[in-house]
Specification:
By secondary structure, the protein is mostly helical. It is built from five helices and no strands. The radius of gyration is 22 Å and the shape is flat.
């Protein structure tokens, strides 16, 4: 029993250095400036004006979509409360997931329009690239 506890302690003690070494070994670049094509632009590449305009667009979208997000959550909650079977619960979860995706896609369209207006490259949908 003591041997097993000692083994678990050693495992926990060695976990952090192992994860750190793995991350260091897998890291292939030193900074954000060397981002891969299709990845988000480092904010350091943006002017202060662009940063401010993007912030305002994100904030405006967040405020405009707030009621939609709240309605989506309430709808999901009431669906789960009515669900009596595992299948019904699964259906509720799937509908909730689809609603979140639609709202996220709408937000991406809004932000891509703003990025295009500023002359920046739009953000692509990473799910479709996998």
């Amino acid at each position: 029993m003591v041997f097993m506890a000692l083994t678990n302690r050693w495992r926990r003690a060695l976990l952090i250095p192992c994860v750190a070494l793995t991350a260091a070994a897998l890291q292939h670049s030193g900074g954000f400036a060397e981002a891969a094509p299709g990845r988000r632009m480092a904010e350091s590449n943006l002017t202060d004006s662009q940063k401010q305009q993007l912030f305002q667009a994100r904030r405006n979208w967040g405020l405009r979509s707030y009621d939609q997000r709240l309605a989506m959550l309430k709808s999901g909650q009431s669906c789960l409360k009515r669900a009596q079977t595992p299948e019904a619960g699964k259906s509720c979860m799937q509908k909730q997931k689809q609603a979140r995706r639609r709202l996220r896609d709408q937000g991406r369209q809004v932000m891509n329009a703003e990025l295009s207006r500023l002359g920046l490259q739009p953000v692509s949908d990473m799910r479709r690239k996998k």
